[in-house]
Amino acid sequence: MLKVRDLGVSRGGITILEGINLTLASGAALVLTGPNGIGKTTLLRTIAGLQLAASGTALLPPEGLAYAGHADGLKATLTVAENLTFWARVFGQDGIGAALTAMDLDALADRPAQNLSAGQKRRLGLARLLVTGRRLWLLDEPTVSLDAASVRLFAEAVRSHLAAGGAALMASHIDLGLGGAATTLDLAPYRSRLPEPGQGGGFDEAFA
Amino acid sequence: MIALLLRDLRLATRAGGGFGLSLAFFLIVTVLVPFGVGPEGGTLALIAPGVLWVGALLACLLSLDRIFALDREDGSLDLLATAPLPLEGLAAIKALAHWLTTGLPLTLAAPVLAVLLNLPSEGFGPLTLSLLIGTPALSFIGAFGAALTVGLKRGGLLLSLLVLPLYIPTLIFGAETARRGAEGLATETPLLLLAGITLGAVAILPFAAAAAIRVNLR
Amino acid sequence: MSIWEYANPKRFMQTSSWALPWVTGLAAMVLVTGLTWGFFFTPDDYRQGSTVKIIYIHVPAAMMAINCWAMMLVASLIWLIRRHHVSVLAAKAAAPIGMTMTLIALFTGAIWGQPMWGTWWAWDPRLTSFLILFLFYLGYIALWEAVEDPDTAAELTSVLCLVGSVFAILSRYAVLFWNQGLHQGASLSLDREEHVADVFAYPLWLTIAGFVLFFVALVLFRTRTEIRARRLRALEARERMV
């Protein structure tokens, strides 16, 4: 479903990760790990197409993907249901009931997003994934500010997504308990070596 | 796309959405002008078309930085950029929503405010028509400026600096239409030129704005 | 041997370091000759007296103000199409020069206009256009200053230059339309090119050539500075990574 070939990603004009190869089949999840600042977010953004790759390619499913970053993209003055309905319609889907139930938001449906707690906002942000109808999910620290019960709820949602033929690529520090479906990829070996002065190909290195 | 338009309109009309702020600003500017130039009716009538156009332009400018900056702050822009929605379409819809919540109300308010400035009766039609045709250009040019500055922390002032020079042709033809109308002259030529600018801006600037957003998201 | 070879920064630095002294020397020579000739060895105009001699600064500066924007437009297009960093840095380097030329043209125009027209400023189409051009330079430079990341800034300023050019041309014609609509015809036209007698024209051509050479020298010099600044940035970033 996702094929990444020899991908290099850069932040602020400097290549930070390179030579990343990974494939993600339907029904599989891959968890990216590595110390802070190694480039997990940058890698996810590059695969999502928000950033240009420094090298290599990422082959996405033709229908696109659903990306969830650090920010949930919620509008404070819209209600939970309105926020969700908007995203469902942007992705050409309808029906938000299942997503509300899955993330236990039924009781909050008519509450403006500004009155939600941080964890509830996060749940709403994750419920957004369920209404996109996309099979490939890119998740950047999805469990931040979730309590233990909500993490279980989310893990359940991911499991059923995988069981239905979906796939997920996520950066996460905690174990969701996905069992055999999930593999872990440590990014540390892909950290880019510093080019010798004058050896790199980029503009900044082209003249010493 | 329709969903996006409806959401933006809904956001603008909810509390804190800024709808009405531009209108209030337009009103205040128009009220302040007689204090500056004196209450003499003839003078006011002479400058009314220009004052109303400049006032509408500044009121429009006021809400430009909301077009993309709010979506950028709460992460919606990232999510929209990965959604099955071309960024060009996004920029066009956002500009359209801005016009519906700013340009259109300003156009409707202008004749009322024109009364305060003693605009001759034959000038009302051309004034309203010129604003109706010209304000979409202001929104689309403004959306381009907002896209350029969306990545900046305090882009508001820079946005004005970038956008105001781009507003000059629109202002000239728009105010010229209104002024000729007030003097009872033919208004076709400037009106057609104004329409040309609006059509050009609507057709081309969403592409430039989308390019700028793409760069700013990196 | 392709012209794009000079888009390689290393090649550009080599060539420009060789060319810069020559261009600078030539510019100084031509400028001094032209200005001396124009100021001291041309007769006073029968109507304007000696004030006419400001033409030797005013006209070249005004021409460079416009040509500089045209050069920035071409350089921006080259960046957008072919991604040559030197090109966009040259555009960045040229902008303050163009802005200064615009200011020189405006000020010398005011100084010339005062004795001739009895006013420092009139909303003549040509004067107004230059004022607008100044605003466009201001916005372009401000955008370069405001954006932190150099590649992002390059991209955004290039798009702005492209869109700005279209609107600058629109403004030019809008202003022509506006002024005729408001006032009588342009009785204060500056367009006296055709009337200039040969005795004035030769030193004028010389000063124009001098300004062009001067501009090229400044752009080369400032582009070299920009390239070095980029290099410095890269080195600092590398240091932070270690």
Briefly, what is this?
The complex is a heterotrimer of chains A (208), B (218) and C (242). With 218 residues, chain B is mainly alpha-helical. Chain B is built from 9 helices and no strands.
Note down, in words, how this protein is organized:
- The complex is a heterotrimer of chains A (208), B (218) and C (242).
- Chain A has 208 residues and is of the alpha/beta class.
- Chain A is globular, with a radius of gyration of 18 Å.
- Chain A has helices at 40-48, 80-90, 97-102, 118-132, 148-163; strands at 2-11, 14-24, 29-33, 55-59, 66-68, 136-140, 167-171, 182-186.
- A 5-stranded parallel β-sheet of chain A has the order 5-6-7-3-8, with helices on both faces. A 3-stranded antiparallel β-sheet of chain A has the order 2-1-4, covered by helices on one side.
- The longest helix of chain A is centred in the last third of the chain and has 16 residues, at 148-163.
- Chain B contains 9 helices and no strands.
- Chain B has helices spanning 2-13, 21-37, 41-62, 66-73, 76-82, 87-116, 124-148, 156-182, 188-217.
- In chain B, helix 3 (41-62) packs antiparallel against helix 8 and helix 7 runs antiparallel to helix 8 (156-182).
- The longest helix of chain B has 30 residues, at 87-116.
- Chain B is elongated, with a radius of gyration of 18 Å.
- Chain C is 79% helix and 0% strand.
- Chain C has helices at 9-40, 55-82, 85-117, 125-146, 150-182, 198-241.
- Chain C is an all-alpha fold and 242 residues long.
- Residues 181-190 of chain C have low confidence and may be disordered.
- Chain C starts with 8 loop residues before the first helix and ends with a helix.
- In chain C, helix 2 packs antiparallel against helix 3 (85-117), helix 3 runs antiparallel to helix 6 (198-241) and helix 4 packs antiparallel against helix 5.
- Chains in contact: A-B, A-C, B-C.
Give the uncertain stretches of chain C in residue-range form.
181-190
Helix percentage range of chain B: over 70%
Tally the structural domains of chain C.
Answer: 1
- Beta-strand content of chain C: under 5%
Overall, the morphology of chain B is: elongated
Structural class of chain B: mainly alpha
| Order of secondary-structure elements of chain C | HHHHHH
Number of strands of chain C: 0
Topology pattern of chain B, helix = H, strand = E:
HHHHHHHHH
Quick tags:
heterotrimer, B: 218 residues, mainly alpha, 82% helix, elongated, C: 242 residues, 6 helices, globular
